[in-house]
Fold each of these.
Amino acid sequence: MGPDIAASPGRWYLRWDKGEIFQVTGQDAETGEITIRTYDGDVDLLSLDQWRELRPGLADPPCDWTGPVESVDELDASASLPPGFMTAAPSARNAIKRILVAVKEPGESWSPGLAKATQIARATGAQIELFHCVDAALTVEQLAAYRGGMDEFERSQRHSWEEGLERLASKVRSHGVHATFSAPVDHPVHEGIVRQARCFHADLIVTDAHRGSNFAAWIMEEVDWELVRLSTAPLLIVRQTELYQRPLVLAALDPSDSHSKPATLNRKLLNASAVFSRALEGDLHAMHAYSVPGAVAEAASAVSASVAAELQAIDAGRAHASLDSLLMSTNIPAECRHVAPGSPADAIVRTATELKASLLVMGSVARSGVGRLFIGNTAEKVLNRLPCDLLLLKPDDFANSIADQRRGARLISTGVYF
């Protein structure tokens, strides 16, 4: 929800819960009742209590709006607009051109992921593709009832989903964002999303986080799990419901040589973090989680508190030096550079929590074999406790074995899937 703001006749506002915009057309001087008009032209009357409960945010007029502007005051509207719901900044344009939103439940619902994807698109000038993979199945006997065969069956399956996506796309377009949609029949769902991202040349995939009691991998939805493992495009997992309001973007970096991530991944993480912080008018921070060697930890426990503190300071100084060296070509100020001791997963979650980060940006290196059961790297361990949204990036040389050709519907015969 947005902050409490006064109703100003002539201004446009955003309903955070529905992603809909409306204009305040007047306010009764005696009762305080507020008259509003939606983009579709519907008129409604709100009491002051209803307005306070709604807590709308300021928004741009729709791009095709031709109504009166005389009543809008002369203040710089862009100065108070929620970041991402104003015209794209020149520095942010072309950094993200195509955003694929994995829609889990097409219809009227405006999910946090879709709302934030729209916000990012407005801030970067990107276009959006709303995508829902229809995982449909039928038996050989059922297929015989369709004169057009499998093509007719798949068309019938796509129809209702496409109607829901069209309604969502209309809401996105009302914010001045070019939006398309597609709902092909394919399986499994995660492969369908990865295939579409490749076909769409997506610079970013956005998905809502699993709605369970926590985000641990063993209860994580299979689709989310596989996207983390197999997506070659940057993957934004949305956990927080509030829109970005000048967010703190935290880049988790690894300047040491003790991990398997390619060194170029750090630069990729910094570039992506800078794009998001600039586009959303947020603050960019960077951190390095460092492990304390076992010998040092044992030595610290065997000496006085002052000597132990000195040893810890030496370790922290080395970590700061490594991070400063990595950030030498950036303009991230010293107060926005952080080092934290402990296991990478613990240190990252602790730092993100203490800083009240809105977005954590980190690398992910998928594993195969036994590692597939728990993936095993820091990114997957962080997911269990992370309090904010997560942007995951893979190394440039990462590839998956997912074919370009869609699989279509599942054909079931005697209980066996084909």
Amino acid sequence: MRHVLIKLHTYIGLIVGIFIVLQALTGIALIFLHHLFYWQYPELNFPVEDRSYASIETVMAEAADLSEYSIEEIIAPHGRFRLNHFLAFGFADESAPTAVSEPILIFHPYTGEYVRAIDLQEAYSLLPLVYHSNLLSGEMGERIIAILGLILSTTSLLALYIWWPQRRPALRKALHLEMRGGFQRKVYRVHAVFGFFFVIPIALMGFTGFALHYPEWVKAPTHELKPTTAEDWGFDPTEQEICAPSGFVRAADIALRMRPDARISTISRPREGRPYWFVRTKKSGDLDRLSGDYTVYLSPICLDLLAEERVSDQPWWHRSLFVSFHTGRLFGLAGEGFLVVTGLVLTVLPITGFVIWLRRRHRVTDKGLLSAFIRRLRK
């Protein structure tokens, strides 16, 4: 049985190893996303001022004047991405000659004025974010990433079972990073020892990555919001002009009337696969909360209340793990440092695993390792 599990662990690693390495490296890059972004666009690095941010209603009014763009989502400045400006996502009018093809619209954080549009195809500083989220493949890429998260978690726990020594003296010896012996033994020791000490963080990283893509599988706050088209809700699409001529303004007004002491952090209109509005709010001083602590879901046309969700109603592990642990913000700067180390270990493990497999498969010496690898690629 153990021999079969070793084979399973080996071939899973060979198949998905390259994707895991790229996910780990792009995950590390996301910690420094604001530095990369402001390095490419230094004019957007607005200085932090001792005054309140502009209201999202001001930004919505500015966005409404941009006839060449159709806005789908607006996100307020927040501490976790360390991007000090409003972001808006949407589509460009193809007939507008000055419009960029895949726009990210930037608005001033304190005045709400429109600054400029960034073409996502040219924003290479955001490439780690896009790749880490969907492998540059849209919805299909998101599904693949979620599956990779589950594979990473199960493979990590499987490796722990395979590696675990049967006797306690052997366990103490196995935990010692002994670098004596030949090259193959050193590679194996690095693979085994680092894999053991980081197996729990790596398994959690994979599971939380899956949960961020499919939270309804772990906890379903929107389990009643299953219809995928407006007609499924029983609404007549011809009533759209009557019911919601100013959807963003009306959605924001409903959310703020339900929670007048908060500010809107994200507002998003219906889209394919999610045919309802959602508005997230947070306390005015809670800059570090990524997505807000209160969400309302509104019907796609007439904006009737469908559901509401409070972060405080969720269990502590749900609040802490899904975003805070996966982004490294659970323990502040120390958590980010630990996430970088975990990412580096996750980069090393597939590489060392591949080297171990290659040497055992071909019985090569240290000098013949590179040539064997090249021959393998040519086949």
Amino acid sequence: MGGFAERTVNEICAAMNRAHISQRELAKRLGVTEARISQILRPESNMTLRSVDRILAAIDGFDQ
């Protein structure tokens, strides 16, 4: 089992898959580039809890 960052990225990716949301759509919802999403979704990206919260909120809002 990987570290916290790796598990967090895996959970975000799993949530994206469940919601059928692409990196492109997530980027659009967050107002960032697709390349930035790609960077964020690397375990070594050292994202903040605030970023995790924003990402999960954007994914959760996909089905609404």
